[in-house]
Structures are given as C-alpha cells and as structure tokens.
TrEMBL record:
This is Aspartate racemase. Belongs to the aspartate/glutamate racemases family. Its EC number is 5.1.1.13. It comes from the Bacteria. The keyword Isomerase applies. PANTHER family: ASPARTATE-GLUTAMATE RACEMASE FAMILY, GLUTAMATE RACEMASE. One of its GO terms (molecular function) is aspartate racemase activity. Pfam families: Asp_Glu_race. Keywords: Isomerase.
Amino acid sequence: MNKPILGIIGGVGPLATAYFMEALIKKTPARTDQEQMPMIVFNDPQIPDRTAHILDHDKPNPQPEMAKVARWLEDAGADYIAIACNTAHYFYDAIVEAVTIPVVNIMQETAHNIAAQVSHGATIGLMATDGTIESGVFQSYFERMGLRTLAPTDEDRTIVMHLIYDCVKANAPYDVDAFLGIARRLHESGCDAVVVGCTELSVIYQDLPERPPYLYDSLDILADRCVNLYQWARQAGGDIKM
C-alpha cells in the first residue's frame, strides 16, 4: 500500500465526511486508482454532538470517543489524521495527546490560507455552529494571524443552525439562497473574506452554481493540505512533516 495513509475521524457528520473523501479523491493528481492517496475512515456517527456539549457541559462529552477513534486509526496504520468537523477542534489538544502521529488542524490551516490572501488586520466573516462561535477557538487562530473575526447576526446564526441541523444533518433539502444571503450580508458588513466554518455548510458550498470570490471553504482547504502533505511525503520518501 502507498504510504503515508490518512486517517479520518468521520461521522461528525456523516455526509460531511463523504464530501471530504470526495474532495480528497478529486484533488489528488492521480491518473489511475493505484495513484490515489490511501485513507482509513472511521465513520462514527455515535460521537456525541460537539455543539451541545460546548454550550452545556452537562450534555455528553464527545472527547473520549473522538480520542478513542484517533487511537484506533493510528493502530490501524494511519500516518496522520484529519477531523471532518470544525466544531470538534474545540477538543483538538486532547485528540493530539491521544496519539503519536500528526493531526491536521482545519482551523489553523484555514487561518494560514486566508491570511496569505488578505491584508493584515482584515475582517473575516465566520459561518459556523453556535458551538464554534461561542467557544472562540476559530477566532483565536485568526487573531494569531492578525485578523479580526465577525460572526453573523443572531437572526442569521439561527438560519445557519437550521441549515446545519434541520437540513444537512437531517438529510433534508437546504436553501442555497439562504446560505448565500448570510455570506453576502457578512461581506456587505465589511468582511474581506467569509469562511464556511462548518463541514455541514461545506456540503452546501459544493452545490453552489457560482461561488463568490470572497467565500472560502474550510473543508476544501483541509483537503488541499492533506493532499499536499501526502505528495510531499511521497516525494521525500519520509514521514509526514507538519
């Protein structure tokens, strides 16, 4: 089997995991099946809801199960790990501590990617779960890059949560215009870039007939990074270097 092998903590949620796998396959410059990057996916939809626990610590904690999945992936032969969920990165440090292999950080990669394309001090709109926004974790990565962050209005945050939980997670139709409207209002409020900061929203992003130039998808950025790490390691004949 080709090395290195990517391990994916999936099921958070399941459809976003499937989209992430599709993005990885499409982004890998392969001409045959045998040239594709290998991956091990643990699609575990029984992991407790991340936002529910962040907003109310009395709700089930997803951290132990995610750490367990990470260890399983390493034991199964994964050389590095990606998590197909932004909100799950609230627990990133605990997952890193559970394994001895690198764990790619979707928030860090997104902040680095966007910082390279906007001016220092730019404002970044963040479309994400209430858990991600209230935790402040994503905002902290942008702050380290000298960028400010703006969340949607309370009304638009309600729409975002509806799109995530009542539409994508529920396998129900979603309103692309509602999604684009939130992004547009953030842009009109002064945001130089708007981040799709939830992997369920990434599912909607992939269906857009046209993508505004100010809109960046975090899952797309994560896929690029994972493919690049694979290619660099293959060319160097060594381990994953973060």
